Amino acid sequence: MRNLAGSIVCPESISKFFTLNNSIYIAAFFIVIILLISFSLQQKQKNSIRNGIFEQQKQVQIDSSRAIAHHLQSDIELILSRLQGLAMSGDIQEGDFTSNLTKSLLANYYDKISSTTPVDRLFLQDKNGIAVIDMAPDENPSYAGKDFSFRS
Q1: C-alpha torsion sign, points 100, 106, 112, 115
Q2: Do residues 109 and 78 make contact, with C-beta atoms less than 8 angstroms apart?
Q3: Strands (E), the chain
Q4: 106 and 112 in contact (C-beta within 8 Å)?
Q5: What is the CA radius of gyration of the chain?
Q6: 112-150 pLDDT tens trace
Q7: From CA 73, how far away is CA 145, in angstroms rounded?
Q8: CA angle, corner 125, sides to 94 and 143, nearest 5?
Q9: DSSP bridge partners of 73
Q10: Which of 10, 52, 74, 130 shows the greatest Cβ crowding within 10 Å of its Cβ?
């Protein structure tokens, strides 16, 4: 019998190579190779699943953040439109900040705004930035008379 290189191979040398001890080593070698390949494939699959779950969670987070931002924008626009309506009131435009009608109007708008979007307080400032009227829950301190001119 000849091998690929053209030299003669004895069947006795093949049978000597595949002795019981060598067969155990060859089987152990193949088992180790199979285990390494299996471990490598398992790691790749594990990483693929982990990355997929991460990307899904990232997209869910982005979608949730967009929804929250949209709701906040809507709430702020609603508050601004109501404040604009309050600012267009005749009594406020005339500068009558002390009348009961102005106080009632401010209280009414505070209740409307707080019913849809809870707000801390609502106060009316004069042209110098001094808070004239203040609407807030009873447990909060009043801002009436405080100077907010530094904010304009």
Answers
A1: negative
A2: no
A3: 122-125, 131-135
A4: no
A5: 41
A6: 888 888 888 888 888 888 888 888 887 888 888 888 888
A7: 31
A8: 140
A9: none
A10: 130
